[in-house]
Amino acid sequence: MKRWSAVLLAAFLAAFPALAWQDAIRLRTVVIDAGHGGHDPGAINKNSKLKEKDINLDLALRLGALIEKGCPDVKVVYTRKTDKFVELAERGNIANRNHADLFISIHVNSAKSTAASGTETFVMGTDKSSSNMEVCKRENSVILLEDDYSTTYEGFDPNNPESYIIFNLMQNAHFEQSIAFAALVQQNFINNGPVKKSRGVRQAPLMVLWRTTMPSALIEVGFLSNANDRSTLNQAAKRQKIAEDIYEAFHAFKQQYDSNSGFEIDASVLATDEPEEEPEPAVAPTVTPAGPHWEIQILASAKKLKNGSPDLKGETDYQCRFINGMYKYSVGNFSSREDAAKQLPAVRKKFSGAFIIKVD
Ligand SMILES: [Zn+2]
How far is 338 from 261, CA to CA, in rounded Å? Predict the structure, then answer.
């Protein structure tokens, strides 16, 4: 009997090799993380009595229901389905224990300035520009509400900039996939979302993402401190629209993931920095190759780097573009994504966060 099973299996695999292969690389499990909860309300608005934790949970449940309906082959796991406190480390542990293929953390932003508005999606990175650090301090400091946080997080202090050095030891194994998902989220927000303004895809040292061992992103769906965003987030129909936008991104990501043909990343939605405060300088970007092609982005900077800057690590043959307030540096000029992918490991030896971009 046993031998027959093995023979049948071998015959099956020989007849349908593509089927067996596809089965092995499919996106099967997603973890949806509603930020905050219980005695941690997250951002609050006193006048409207709106709490971030409630909006996060509502969006998480709406998103989960859409995935369960639209992608019945995907197992949806929630870090919380009720108003309860979950430690930051445990949120990542839940994803790791379930061998999740994608981790989606949902949050609402808040800022001192009531003018700040719009959506932004973060992936784990070590960029410590000031606007990103504001989000980091707020989202990371929830660990201070935990009983034993200094043991759990090995002395990490979210308010001490020096503490953030631990993140420099990060592995970038899922960086490209994380960026791909985050870019799809922002694209959908820009195209269809009730909160139209996009602050782009950003990198930041976020503990909850750092703890996960799969592609992950943290979505800030709007600002509770901004009257327009707050009014949008307060309407169930608009929250449903936001959940649908994230679902569309998830669905597109899953299709690319399952096809194993690599990810297309729209570079135009990556990292905008302080759009209100930084006017575009008059300098034109350096000459770039014409026509659609692929390049490998090596770094992004709020300031234009001089030739020979240590940040460029000796790289002299690169393209520089000024996009949405950031100088994006990239190398190579490939006619296909596959050609760029071949070169990527070599580039990552020098620039560990490098990823492929499509340039039109
Ligand atoms: Zn939050």
Answer: 9
Looking at the chain, which runs of residues are DSSP E strands? 29-34, 44-45, 50-51, 75-78, 102-109, 119-124, 198-204, 216-223, 293-301, 319-323, 326-334, 355-359
Ligand 1 centroid distance, CA of 327 (Å): 28
Same domain, 255 and 299: no
**What is the total count of domains within the chain?**
2
Neighbours of ion ligand 1 (CB under 5 A): 35, 42, 107
How many angstroms separate the alpha carbon of residue 141 from the centre of ligand 1?
A: 10
63 has pLDDT over 50: yes
Give residue 109 CA to ligand 1 midpoint distance, Å. 6
Q: Which domain holds residue 233?
A: 20-259
Per-residue pLDDT tens over the stretch 73-87: 999 999 999 999 999
Give 198 Cα–ligand 1 centroid separation in angstroms. Answer: 18
Q: Is residue 271 part of a domain?
A: no
CATH code for the domain of 329: 3.30.70
Residue 194 located in a structural domain = yes
| 156-210 pLDDT per residue, tens | 888 887 777 777 665 567 888 999 999 999 999 999 999 989 999 998 889 899 8
Whether residue 267 is contained in a domain is answered as: no
Is residue 243 assigned to a domain? Answer: yes
Q: Report the chain's mean pLDDT, rounded to a whole number.
A: 84
